[in-house]
Amino acid sequence: MSRELPSLNALHAFEAAARLQSVSAAAAELHVTHGAVSRQIRLLEETLGTALFVKDGRGVKLTDPGARLRDATGDAFERLRTACQEVKQRSVDAPFVLGCPGSLLARWLIPRLDRLQRELPDLRLQISTSQGELDPRSPEVDATLLFAEAPWPADMHVFELAHERIGPVLSARHPRFEALLKTSAAGLLDEALLHTTSRAQAWPQWIQAKGLDAEALKLGQGFEHLYYLLEAAAAGLGVAIAPQPLVADDLRAGRLAAPWGFADTNGHLALWVSQRRQDGRAERLAQWLKDELGETA
User: Which superfamily, per CATH, for 96-163+268-282?
Assistant: First the structure.
């Protein structure tokens, strides 16, 4: 026996018209025209080689084959509706997996996780991080929190949470801390600056924002990850550069200082969500993150 089915659009139109006993009512339910439903029913009748409706006064009624198909399609579509609802509910009940770079996770998100989970208990947040570059399109994550620059890809829904601001920071443990506090941004050109290989453009961006020549920069010790870079700065090993949210708590606690201020880049901290993962949770998380970032600015 052939496993081919008639057009599903035609079956859908027929099922609605048979269930509602009206082509007009079916058209209204399916948000199409009366003529569109009629054409789909004619297509189905031609495919099956039999009439499914006959005229009955000003309306229509089902033939015997039509009544048999009504029962079968009604049961099939109801089972499909139930299954889809169950799948959707399981998706909502499943943990929401957030991809997040380790430095952002350790220095900004983890201190706020307890409050996030209290305020968004239905999110059931699960964090995924990686030593390598995060892939927002990975099927293993529901969303990814990243610093990045537009334009955004068409296959992703990107929530812009905050403009990226970067700036130099150092610790009071630095042997020349007091002297450096008195120097201008230009004075940093004489320093062997701590930097991260994952964000090589950070120092040039900030120096240029201050109207200085990036070619005059002297880079010292480099670190693979921002987390280690900032730990080195906190230990007094030199002047580092970082996004403002990642050092906001350290600045408030006095663990780090930022005497030269922060400058905007072209980037944003953004929540990337695949277009296939739209169940409302990403929007709630994005709004929470945006509000929290506003408080730490």
Answer: Periplasmic binding protein-like II (3.40.190.10)
